[in-house]
Amino acid sequence: MHEHLTAWKSAQAPKTRQAATLSDSLSTALAQEIEQHASSARAEAEERALDAEQTADELAKTGTALEAEIDAFKAQLSVLSDENETLTQQRDDAQKITEQLTQDLDRERATKEALMLELAELRHQAKTQQQQLDREVQKREEVEKDMIHPTKRVSPLKKLLLCQALHNRDSRTSLVIAINN
């Protein structure tokens, strides 16, 4: 059936339609309205274009200023990097010096401890020698006292040895031998 309907429609002569016509006053009013809207749209577009141009100029100025600022920051960064390298080198040098001084200090402390021990030994030796000297002086004084005021009888040999010991201060052994005899 669809085939028959399609064939019948195509056999029919097409109707001619008449175009709608507008009156002259309506056409003029529409043309004026369209012109007014076009003019308004054109003015708006020109204003947006001027705003866009001004914004572009401002952005260009800001971009130029920012580029100059970036260049300044790059220069400053370069200077700071150089200073950082210098300070890092100085820190490393200071650490090496500190390590060396620490080693020197440890060595000096060890030397000081050794010297303190040696000093203590020397003081002990000096004290011991002083005690020995004091005993020898005391014995010498006793011998001298006995020679001047003999309380007991002293043999001539012992007297000779005592005299030699008294005159020869370095001869401690002679004095000890004479006292023990």
Can you lay out the helices and strands and say which pair or pack?
Elements: H1 2-11, H2 24-148, H3 156-167, H4 172-180
Helix pairs in contact: 3-4
Coiled coil: 42-146
Protein name: KfrA N-terminal DNA-binding domain-containing protein
Organism: Vreelandella azerica
Structure in a nutshell:
The chain is built from 4 helices and no strands. With 181 residues, the chain is mainly alpha-helical. Helix 3 runs antiparallel to helix 4 (172-180).
Sum up the structure in keywords.
single chain, 181 residues, mainly alpha, 4 helices, KfrA N-terminal DNA-binding domain-containing protein, coiled coil
Summarize the structure in words:
This protein has 181 residues and is an all-alpha fold. 86% of the residues lie in helices and 0% in strands. It has four helices and no strands. The chain has helices spanning 2-11, 24-148, 156-167, 172-180. Helix 3 (156-167) runs antiparallel to helix 4. The longest helix has 125 residues, at 24-148. The protein is rod-shaped. The protein starts with a helix and ends with a helix. Residues 173-181 have low confidence and may be disordered.
